[in-house]
């Protein structure tokens, strides 16, 4: 029987981690090592011709002016997406948490964007944003007499992409914020009300800080999602355009890996992304932990 | 008795999946010792990626459909059994019944590498009803760039805010149309005889023909005579035409039936015409687009032989007719076309006849046979990106061609280094 | 009186706000619904339609005929369920290890785990992963669709965060009562985390349900494909599309995730809140 044995307690954490570590080493790190090796080569589509090019792939990334603008766009895109999603979802979670009649339905409706695949989401938005026959322009033309070419001009392509990405990510954050808000103790809020605290104070001085571990989690998760998972939406909505305007680092990796089958440079680009994310995360954890309130 | 298994991967979605499945079943009835496993493996890109994974892991399929622009990569990769090898060993197969216009794309130095399967051209559709309303003659579609601009001018209507109500023409933002327009003017895309005499080393697309088309594209955009779609948005372009927002559409010949049905549903009369060319340019022809069937190496001999039987079957006249009627892609053989002609098919589908005639009238040379290069997908994306910039006023037509040619030269150099 | 009035106003504004917002958020799907009930040609008519006006239910029956939906739905259900199960189990165990224990190399192992999130597993690594599957002999099997995804840093991280919010007094009390770490985990910690687990189940289920690229590459037969691959089968890149059927297929594919969400809504949204300390 498991007792209070000191030895057991000492090895228990390792035992708990075995399943996770097995899966990620076998199915993630080993393929990743393969890719890492690939980043120093140039290969033809089928792998029947490979030449060793050393750090040439990396050199190309850092000297290509197009790639530098991709860096910039990625930073803006990720930053804005995360910022808007986190605050908007917190706001919506507050509303949904009030349990007004019909909340069950509202939550379901608001959840659905997450359940739709990124490609279909992109397709639906594309239809709605069609410059001549689409719903959004129909309304805008009726109100403002303007016809906006949403997906083919700057900056509208970016706005459209931002809206679609936030739309898709919102439910993820809302789900966790609702779960988190559920565990904010009622008595804390009651005593605050008795102390004369208004709604604003209760939200920003009590609720938001108490869910800060969730926020901490969501911000980094949203960053990762915006960095790594939004390429399908970009592919469907703008194809990275117009003229490469909405190409993020991940979308470039996707193009190089899947459309041009240039595995060498795609691998190098992912290594660069990996290192950047690692740096961002380390900074995030060090700085962020200070602002998180654990009970 | 163990059946020989043939794995066939294709990228034809929607109702065409059923069509291919039934054709495979017909084959299996005639060949009870062969089992064909038909699989829809996604888009052309997805299929190619799956093929790569299969080859690298040593589990390749037997027959796979690859898009036409993958031809150089397939040849250089040396992962396929050239179709010519099988033809040379098979006395039953008569290559003369096949239409050279279609075969020529996949033939290099007289050697056929893959079997043409779903072949198409670009064609101009126009809204006869809108033509009449705009004062244009519905029986005289524009034949050259000048007439095209005039037609667009007549068709374009804007409201008091300057927004487009109807416009002249659209085609989706796809490099294919650029390539077609070059070939229609008998101009090459790359050197070394369009990549057919030897792997190309230099892009030639910044020639006069390219300039003419790119300038046209720019002019039509600036004057709002055309509506541009986003990259490779076939659906968007069709939509504009069928909802009568534009009077003309350049799209694939495989869309004939869809256009006929759509026009009927939306109450207008549709007509088809050849692609317009500049008046003073040399006359070339249309390039074959679409895909072909490849036999993949690395499988046991009986499987490859069985796969060849399957490919032969799919290339026979009855199957070609069935495929053409079901999808709108060209039948690859003369006898199939003859039969359709004698059955009165072309009276019922005059637009299919227009497509066929454009193909038959095409001069056959290196330029119209289509360019072959290993970096096609990236070249296309580069061109399309630059065109998008042009549409947004960031580049001139000349710069589009210059930059694309420059990038393509670099890509070709990179690619060729692999084969030194 | 004043407080009651305030509450009614508050509720009304909230209600109105929620109606508007959920309508806006839901509208693209309303579009999908409308399109799924139209004939393919009228999908492109102008002016655009906002609500279903025609009811061509045959799009749905045709979608079922176009692809083997029943089998695909079953496959997706199996795959998504087991991946979710795996991810939740490995996630709570790992989260517990990181949150409640101090051990040698803890932060390094956590970093090692977390770093997996910076790898674009869905693109560059697909072919190497495919080769690993070949080694195991798992190509075209459920194993390939499930096992590689049964652990994730996301979940470990999330549960680590969550478990750290549980006051340590609880653990101390359990120790005093003579309960071992696993007993504490199973009888106290997990029950307190029901909301979180509910949320995690839903998120992971949907994520697994929506996977497309990997099932496409690793399945070699139609009967091993998942529903997203199936829906993609209806869409053609350059050919003409029957958007009515495509949207019908899409909605059929989305339905199970919505059902799972509705079923779990009551798990992660509790109207009663229990303060942990009074357990």
Description:
The complex is a heterotrimer of chains A (295), B (420) and C (279). In chain A, 75% of the residues lie in helices and 2% in strands. Chain A is an all-alpha fold. Chain A has a two-stranded antiparallel sheet. In chain A, helix 3 (65-97) packs across helix 7, helix 4 packs across helix 7 (156-182) and helix 12 (249-259) runs antiparallel to helix 13. The mean pLDDT of chain B is 92. In chain B, helix 1 (15-30) packs antiparallel against helix 14 (317-327). Chain B is α+β, with helices and mostly antiparallel strands and 420 residues long. In chain B, a hairpin with a 5-residue loop joins strand 9 and strand 10. Chain B has two domains: 4-120 and 289-357, D-Maltodextrin-Binding Protein, domain 2; 122-285 and 375-418, D-Maltodextrin-Binding Protein, domain 2 (3-Layer(aba) Sandwich), CATH 3.40.190. Chain C is mainly α and 279 residues long. At the A-C interface, helix 1, helix 3, helix 4, helix 5 and helix 7 of A face helix 1, helix 3, helix 4, helix 5 and helix 7 of C.
The CATH class assignment of chain A is Mainly Alpha
Name the overall outline of chain C.
Answer: flat
N- and C-termini, Cα separation of chain C:
35 Å
Kindly identify the CATH topology of chain A.
MetI-like fold
Content of β-strand of chain C:
under 5%
Distance between the termini of chain A: 32 Å
Q: Using DSSP, what is the number of strands of chain C?
A: 0
Choose one word for the global shape of chain A. Answer: globular
What CATH architecture of chain A would you give? Answer: Orthogonal Bundle
Number of domains of chain A: 1
Q: Percentage of helical residues of chain C?
A: 55-70%
Give the rounded overall mean pLDDT of chain C.
83
As a percent range, the share of strand residues of chain A is under 5%
Structural class of chain C: mainly alpha
Poorly predicted segments of chain A: none
Radius of gyration of chain A: 23 Å
Count helical runs of chain C.
13
Please report the number of helical segments of chain A.
13
Regions with little confidence, pLDDT below 50 for 5+ residues of chain C: 271-279
